[in-house]
């Protein structure tokens, strides 16, 4: 093999993609023997640099020269994946599979796309097929664990442990396994090890910093609870100050709500010190119940708002990097969801009592419509979500204290509900 090809391979493996692509372009139109390989490295380098428009220019050139080579169709699929246009990516990867039906790499890319489209059952079937071709490939095993996680199948941990038995230093598995631990205190070691193995990963850096921040948020929030107790029971403090403290504590509980230990302790303390006579035994039981209820609602808001933010971000990215035709096609393909959004807005409206039954019908019908329209959605989760949304609305009418606190300042109850609903509908995958 020529020296320049070996140099390109080395640069690519080291993550020096700009230098790799510059070297590819230097020889691309003068070395006919290695043209195909140079196109592959150049396109992959551009994708790694997130320059998908330049990658597409080269992919068009390559397809004109190598019409029956499946890898260029697969690279086109990766370009559309990077643009968040998963439907078009699926079309292109199917073209690659038509040229090589048993190519594990093409099937792997398709399984990734199906996972991004929340078509988890199809993705699982495909990942099992891939693993039948190569049962010990670490990337294939890792994708399978991600799909199982998205299907709420606890066996995903067994797959992660299998990966680490094959390679104890596989950073993605270390990171994912640490992320699945429920306590703040159990995550740091795995995050740190993954970061040491891949110090340039933005995801690993973010996870490690977030874990550190969450630890201090928890410690400071516990201290704030005791400060609130002192203010409430021993000092005569202006109600406005206590409202601010309550708001900060509620935001902390929402932020930490996906952990399995810390938010319950914090919510219990928050409820307990709020009792007028917190020395009575009944206050303990009431506080335990309220803690569970508050964390459940906080977790719902946290997941929904996070997924809403991701959905908005992905939508903006898609619009910026897609043609008008692709945008119109996407809108036409989502008419059903637009209809559902309007139905939900109707659910939020204050209407005469004699028409409330229509709102109740919306609550009961929409989950079934969603299940019929898109089998990728977890039906029970959607049903529970819709029922909870309506229960929240009813509770808000009753003036429940928790929701009174949530409406302090800039937070508006209706906006939270709208965001939550949008998040539930648009969430693709948490991994």
What is the topology?
Blueprint: H1 3-13, H2 17-28, H3 35-48, H4 52-65, H5 70-82, H6 86-99, H7 104-116, H8 120-133, H9 138-150, H10 156-166, H11 171-179, H12 188-197, H13 202-234, H14 239-256, H15 262-272, H16 281-320, H17 324-332, H18 335-348, H19 356-373, H20 379-397, H21 401-406, H22 413-426
Short description:
This protein is mostly helical. The chain is built from 22 helices and no strands.
Key phrases:
mainly alpha; 0% strand; 431 residues; 22 helices; disordered C terminus
The helix/strand order is HHHHHHHHHHHHHHHHHHHHHH
Question: Would you count the extended β strands for me?
Answer: 0
Give the termini distance in whole angstroms: 39 Å
Largest sheet: none
Low-confidence runs of at least 5 consecutive residues: 375-379, 398-429
Beta-strand level of the residues, as a percent range?
under 5%
Shape: globular
Average of the residue pLDDT scores: 77
- The computed structural class is mainly alpha
> How many DSSP H or I helices?
22
- Helical residues, percent: over 70%
Give the C-alpha Rg: 26 Å
Structural summary, described in words:
The protein has 431 residues and is mainly α. The chain has a domain at 334-431. 77% of the residues lie in helices and 0% in strands. The protein contains 22 helices and no strands. Helix 3 packs parallel to helix 5 (70-82) and helix 11 (171-179) runs antiparallel to helix 12 (188-197). The longest helix has 40 residues, at 281-320. It is globular, with a radius of gyration of 26 Å.
């Amino acid at each position: 093999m020529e020296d320049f090809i070996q140099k390109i391979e080395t640069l690519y493996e080291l993550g020096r993609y700009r230098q790799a692509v510059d070297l590819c372009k230097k020889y691309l139109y003068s070395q006919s023997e290695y043209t195909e390989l140079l196109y592959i490295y150049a396109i992959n380098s551009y994708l790694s640099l997130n320059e998908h428009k330049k990658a597409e220019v080269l992919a068009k050139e390559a397809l004109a020269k190598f019409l029956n080579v499946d890898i260029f169709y697969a690279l086109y699929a990766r370009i559309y994946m990077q643009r968040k246009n998963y439907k078009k990516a699926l079309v292109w990867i199917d073209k690659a599979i038509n040229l090589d039906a048993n190519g594990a790499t093409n099937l792997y890319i398709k399984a990734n796309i199906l996972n991004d489209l929340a078509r988890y059952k199809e993705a699982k079937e495909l990942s099992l097929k891939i693993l039948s071709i190569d049962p010990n490939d670490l990337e294939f095993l890792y994708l399978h664990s991600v799909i199982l996680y998205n299907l709420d199948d606890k066996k995903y941990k067994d797959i992660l442990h299998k990966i680490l038995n094959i390679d104890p230093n596989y950073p993605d598995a270390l990171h994912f396994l640490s992320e699945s631990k429920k306590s703040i205190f159990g995550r740091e070691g795995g995050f740190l090890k993954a970061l040491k193995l891949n110090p340039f990963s933005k995801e690993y850096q973010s996870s490690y910093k977030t874990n550190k921040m969450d630890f201090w948020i928890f410690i400071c929030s516990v201290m704030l609870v005791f400060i609130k107790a002192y203010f409430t029971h021993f000092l005569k403090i202006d109600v406005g100050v206590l409202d601010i403290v309550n708001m900060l504590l509620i935001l902390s509980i929402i932020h930490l709500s996906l952990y399995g230990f810390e938010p319950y302790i914090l919510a219990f303390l928050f409820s307990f010190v709020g009792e007028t006579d917190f020395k009575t035994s009944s206050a303990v039981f009431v506080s335990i119940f309220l803690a569970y209820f508050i964390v459940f609602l906080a977790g719902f808001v946290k997941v929904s708002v996070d997924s809403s933010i991701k959905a908005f971000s992905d939508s903006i990215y898609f619009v910026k990097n897609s043609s008008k035709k692709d945008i119109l096609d996407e809108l036409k393909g989502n008419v059903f969801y637009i209809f559902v959004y309007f139905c939900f807005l109707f659910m939020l409206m204050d209407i005469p009592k004699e028409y409330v039954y229509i709102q109740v019908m919306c609550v009961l019908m929409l989950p079934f419509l969603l299940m019929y329209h898109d089998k990728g959605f977890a039906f029970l989760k959607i049903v529970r979500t819709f029922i909870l949304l309506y229960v929240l609305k009813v509770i808000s009418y009753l003036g429940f204290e928790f929701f009174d606190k949530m409406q302090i300042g800039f937070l508006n109850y209706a906006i939270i509900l709208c965001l939550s609903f949008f998040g539930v509908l648009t969430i693709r995958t948490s991994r």
